Amino acid sequence: MNILLLIGGLVLILLGANGLTDGASSIAKRFNIPSIVIGLTIVAFGTSTPELTVSVSSALKGSADISIGNVVGSNIFNTLMIVGCTALFAPIVITRNTLRKEIPLCVLASVALFICANDMLFDKADANTLSITDGLLLLCFFVIFLGYTFAIASNKSGENSEETEEIKTLPVWKSVLYIVGGLCGLIFGGQWFVEGASGIARNLGVSESIIGLTLVAGGTSLPELATSVVAALKKNPEIAIGNVIGSNLFNIFFVLGCSASITPLRMSGITNFDLAVMVASGILLWLFGLFFAKRTITRIEGSILILCYIAYTSVLIYMA
Predict the structure, then answer these.
(1) 82, 251 in Cβ contact below 8 A?
(2) Is the dihedral of CA 293, 277, 205, 7 positive or negative?
């Protein structure tokens, strides 16, 4: 039964995210919002709504380890596995702006989460907790990130006119139906997914943090994985970097920001090892782009990233 809830919830989440993205993108295009803005905001939001749904649902149900583990695990999966797999299909060229600004910003976001989550280390507290104050602070960072995104969009609004053709203009009634249906799918799918994942963890005697860092994180990252692999097959592998960075920033600033703002998230199973791997994965990606192969993630480097993820997962299983 738990497996059926898990699979059924994941299917509803993916369908809901797709429907919400299509409906919102169509309405945005109808109001002549530049396609670059749609891509950087609505589409990015759409691919990260599974993480948002699962984390918020977990927070409301008191499963803090799944809520935090989902974000930390998703970011590690995005950086190591998705970029690695995409690089195997086609080498990924990184732009100078991404290398100098966006990847360092992603690393900084991971460091900020590391600091917020280490009350015992820095404040000598009794437990590590993402408080409501931490959540509101992360949301403030998200607003700054949105401002940066719209600044980029205003500078590039005329450069990507061909992208507009990729967004279908649906009738208004169908767009509204997609949005409402997508939201319903996300809400009910999130509830089923969390119940299934928690049940499996209890039955197998595995901690919710391990389930959150692996099974839940991989499942909710499927939209990003699909987007990146399809981009590689269409000879646009550089999209993978933007997809991963945007998703990682959204996960930390907005997903965890919303979850912690609703209720404090006490960290019992998520360790500094997990947080350090998240920070290190971003630094590794930045170093590969900065020092090797002229701002290109090669197939060899992609293989190294995948091996790093396999090693991390193996350590989690061994430590369990």
Answers:
(1) no
(2) negative
pLDDT tens per residue, range 38-68: 655 666 677 677 788 888 888 888 888 888 9
The helix (H) or strand (E) run that includes residue 92 is strand 92-93
State the sign of the Cα–Cα–Cα–Cα dihedral 12, 178, 229, 295. negative
Per-residue pLDDT tens for 81-102? 989 998 888 888 887 878 888 8
CB atoms within 10 A of CB 207: 19
- Token pair of 210, please? 């391990």
Average pLDDT over residues 8-34: 76
**Chain centre to alpha carbon of residue 231:** 17
Domain-wise residue ranges, the chain: 2-319
pLDDT at 284: 95
Classify 2-319 by CATH class: mainly alpha
Which tokens hold the place of 232?
Answer: 């590689």
* Rounded (5°) CA angle 239-249-242: 10
